[in-house]
Predict the structure of 3-oxoacyl-[acyl-carrier-protein] synthase 2.
Amino acid sequence: MKLHRVVVTGMAAVTPLGNDLATSWTNLLGGVSGAGPITRFDPTGFDTTFACEVKGFDPSPFIPAKQAKRLDLFAQYAVAASLMAIKDADLAITPELAPHVGTIIGCGMGGLSTIEEQHKKLLAGGPSRVSPFFIPVLIANMAAGQAAIFTGAKGPNVCTTTACASGAHGVGYAYTDIMLGRSKAMICGGVESTIAVLAVSGFNALKALSTRNDDPKRASRPFDKERTGFVIGEGAGILVLEELEFAKARGARILAEVVGFGASGDAFHMTAPPESGEGMALAMGAALRESGLKPEEIDCVNAHGTSTQLNDACETKAVKTVFGSHAHKLSVTANKSMIGHCLGAAGAIESVFSIKSIMEQVVPPTINYTTPDPDCDLDYTPGEPRKREVRAVMNNSFGFGGTNASVVFKRFE
């Protein structure tokens, strides 16, 4: 079987830092925090009253008003980002090409707000008050489904639901599909919108969220000794991947190459990784081996970096396990310090930012890193973006259930 090279030709993002990639990237480099008081519901009485919300999102340029009413917010984000990414790639999905273009978009939980809304209607008015659109609106795979409907892609249509690794798995398995010759192009990534009563209540019950309500913008502090939990975020990150020869034949602009993907399972605990970081290291090591790159050829690690005590210490151990002495020469960045933890969208948004690092030869900062932790002793690019050579980036995502994913992007040559 011939293996095909896979390149990135288009990207888009809807994030707490902006409703398009250009704005999000500018704010990321500027060290802007997307955190603020929750506006989606009244958080009075909650242990956590802030989040990293997408602000002022308007679906109307992408989705007719009547259809938008029948899409949960997560699906709206996915459609908008998919259309922007296709435009960025300048890819025309003709009837002839359509069967060869797929959609793989990860989503962790789907339409949680829709569930809350329809449950209220059920309790207030009985079963007859539940919308006939309830089920098709809430299901997690509707992001990929609606992206396919709006773009005309008729190839594989898949949702990866692997908690906080969903977006990274979406990118990784789309890359695999093209590499094996099953598809010529894929619209892929991840999406999430669950800043809702149930999600915040549940994560508070787990003691997973920061409760720094008096200072939201400094609450997400990955790898810092004073970290107290993650800040829930939302958004979408979408990439257009293409088989290299197909991309070249149509004169596509190539942004970067996808060269490695690794996935693993902890087989340990439903929410906590083993303290050794073994599962994380297995995914990272697999991605590095597949890339064919030496450890010293990776210049940056875009860390999962959730701002939780255990995750950050475990990821640090895993990076040192995989990279050895080179670990301390890496520029590690934690985008979640600014965008919060976007759950199923996280790995995809961070993949987009990783590719921007390669394109612009700069590593975004990790903000709020002020107090070093002896258990987290790498170079986390504190405070300011760093201009440096960025030949290749490893992007990490890890999720509940012990699911791990790492993707390696490199400068196209």
